[in-house]
Backbone:
């Protein structure tokens, strides 16, 4: 091809690309929203003008209305360079754009036209949109200009918009003081529930807590590829499977966390206890079934709290509000021991108030029948599910104070577990060593409390 021909062809291609881009932009999904906002706002101004007695003021209002009606259509963007945000949300949510609507208030009742809730509150005043953008609280995809794209309800967007109370996870990211912060009450109660139920007995958060399972300090960043579709297929919320036609608006990290609390985790992560697919049997999730203990709204609170657990989103130091100094309660003796039990999450395995050991799959327990290899698998599975961590009051009578302290310090390794089915998997949950984690004074009081709840021997001897 001669240069001349190539020149003509490339020009033609450029023109086509230009026309295509123009047409695409003209049909851009944000346009009708922006246009409607201007029209609705102009209508409001015109109505005000019509009601205005003073003709001069009416003229001003009419001029404003005209200007509003003929506002140029454009992509609007909040650049929050400190937080690395380029948020185009106000392209559609025009009522939240300070340049178009300086008071940030209007009477529209529908998204994306209405004004931001609580515009007069500390929530909006303390975080000017021009500085914080939108996605620092809401997540979603700041640069996108389609509804699904911006709200992050598309494949491969890892941070879909936080909705409802879950948005309080955002407060956790920046506010070390979220436990006493106005507007973050749900996330604060989520943290309380997490501690009350002893999640920290198995899961650390940023290095503090148990070693049985993953550190949840970056759970909000967990990529979807690491939660395979077949795992999501097993998650039921309110008794229903998650639809995957709106892929990530349902298959997201929030529902993955929620799924662990409103289902028996064994149903979510069944693995391969009978070695059907692997050479060795693999126990199902070692996580206890919390469905009888944690209500649905409480699960949502835990989800809100854990939604703030991110390492990927780096919050500059000056955007971080420090936590108040942690204060330990003034307790001593057995009362302090009970507090220590709960602080370290012993109840995660030994049950609330140490009343009943939780499930420890395929560990042997007194509740089980004798192992019989001829039992159907379904029944074997049920028997394995009756394996449990010790119910401590039953056993404390056999310990002296010193022995008990030593036992807690040393823990019991997984290899020492007694299995119910010799062919079944090793129980994955074991008694971790607490040496160096719990201080000497705490350990002493802990042992004092455990001994105080020992079941009295009523055998008559
Ligand atoms: C292309 C237009 C468009 C863009 C861009 C857009 N939105 Fe929206 N938004 C809408 C519409 C339309 C609704 C109402 C219908 C709906 O909920 O899907 C809405 C609803 C919402 C809601 C309420 C959701 C609910 O379920 O109550 C929130 C919160 C929100 N948007 C936040 C954002 C944030 C944050 C961004 C930027 C990352 C953004 N939007 C960008 C059009 C848009
Ligand atoms: C400081 C955190 C924060 C920032 C920044 C923020 N929002 Fe919000 N937004 C919230 C909270 C919290 C709510 C829920 C308020 C409520 O009803 O309790 C909310 C609610 C909303 C809603 C739902 C309104 C409704 O009632 O249906 C929309 C839409 C929305 N925000 C859009 C935006 C947009 C667009 C921006 C950026 C211009 C933005 N937000 C910036 C915290 C924030
Ligand atoms: C990107 C970080 C960031 C996010 C996200 C964030 N905040 Fe803030 N917030 C701040 C900073 C910084 C201040 C200013 C603190 C100061 O002035 O000392 C502040 C101040 C406040 C204040 C007023 C001062 C106070 O402590 O009472 C309130 C209330 C508040 N935030 C609530 C919230 C709530 C509720 C959320 C979640 C919906 C939230 N914030 C999300 C950074 C953030
Ligand atoms: C006895 C130990 C144990 C306790 C107590 C426990 N978990 Fe787990 N958890 C696990 C194990 C083991 C897994 C990994 C298997 C699975 O996904 O079910 C897990 C997985 C998870 C996951 C998914 C993590 C990921 O990276 O996919 C979340 C979220 C979670 N747990 C939250 C909690 C919460 C919240 C609590 C307290 C209400 C809790 N866990 C209590 C053992 C425990
Ligand atoms: C991750 C689950 C888990 C956590 C958390 C946990 N334990 Fe245990 N604990 C076990 C298991 C499993 C056993 C039984 C080990 C065995 O004998 O195979 C056990 C055994 C014990 C025993 C010995 C009981 C006996 O058999 O005589 C004591 C005492 C005990 N735990 C106290 C504690 C205390 C105190 C804490 C909190 C500091 C704690 N445990 C936290 C799982 C746990």
Residues:
């Amino acid at each position: 091809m001669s240069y001349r021909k190539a020149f003509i062809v490339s020009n033609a291609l450029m023109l086509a690309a230009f026309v295509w881009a123009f047409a695409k932009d003209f049909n851009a999904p944000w346009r009708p929203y922006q246009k409607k906002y201007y029209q609705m706002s102009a209508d409001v101004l015109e109505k005000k003008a019509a009601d205005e007695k003073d003709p001069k003021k009416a003229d001003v209002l009419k001029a404003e209305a005209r200007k509003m009606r003929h506002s140029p259509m454009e992509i609007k963007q909040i650049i929050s360079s400190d937080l690395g945000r380029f948020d185009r949300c106000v392209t559609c949510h025009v009522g939240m754009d300070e340049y178009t609507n300086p008071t940030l208030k209007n009477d529209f009742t529908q998204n994306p036209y209405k004004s931001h809730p609580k515009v007069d509150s500390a929530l909006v005043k303390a975080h000017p949109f021009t500085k914080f953008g939108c996605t620092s609280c809401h997540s979603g995809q700041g640069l996108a200009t389609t509804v699904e794209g911006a709200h992050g309800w598309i494949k491969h967007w890892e941070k879909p918009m936080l909705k409802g109370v879950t948005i309080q996870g955002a407060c956790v990211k920046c506010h070390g003081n979220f436990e006493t912060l106005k507007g973050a009450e749900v996330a604060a109660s989520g943290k309380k529930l997490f501690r009350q139920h002893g999640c920290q007995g198995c899961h650390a958060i940023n290095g503090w807590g148990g070693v049985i399972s993953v550190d949840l300090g970056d759970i909000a960043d967990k990529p979807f590829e690491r939660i395979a579709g077949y795992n999501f297929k097993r998650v039921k919320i309110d008794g229903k499977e998650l639809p995957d036609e709106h892929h990530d608006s349902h298959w997201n990290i929030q529902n993955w966390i929620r799924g662990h609390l409103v289902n028996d985790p064994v149903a979510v992560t069944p693995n391969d206890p009978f070695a059907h697919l692997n050479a060795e049997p693999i126990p199902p999730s070692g996580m206890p079934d919390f469905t009888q203990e944690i209500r649905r709204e409480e699960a949502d609170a835990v989800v809100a709290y854990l939604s703030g657990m991110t390492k990927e989103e780096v919050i500059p130091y000056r955007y971080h509000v420090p936590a108040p100094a942690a204060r330990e309660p003034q307790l001593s003796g057995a009362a302090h021991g009970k507090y220590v039990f709960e602080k370290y999450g012993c109840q995660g395995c030994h049950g609330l108030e140490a009343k009943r050991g939780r499930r420890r799959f395929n560990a042997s327990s007194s509740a089980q029948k004798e192992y019989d290899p001829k039992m159907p698998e379904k029944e074997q599975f049920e028997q394995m599910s009756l394996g449990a961590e010790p119910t401590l009051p039953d056993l404390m009578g056999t310990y002296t104070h010193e022995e008990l302290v030593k036992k807690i310090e040393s823990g019991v390794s997984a290899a020492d577990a007694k299995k119910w089915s010799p062919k079944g998997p090793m129980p994955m949950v074991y008694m971790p060593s607490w040496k160096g984690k719990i201080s000497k004074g705490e350990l002493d009081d802990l042992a004092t409390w455990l001994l105080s709840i020992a079941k009295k021997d009523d055998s008559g001897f």
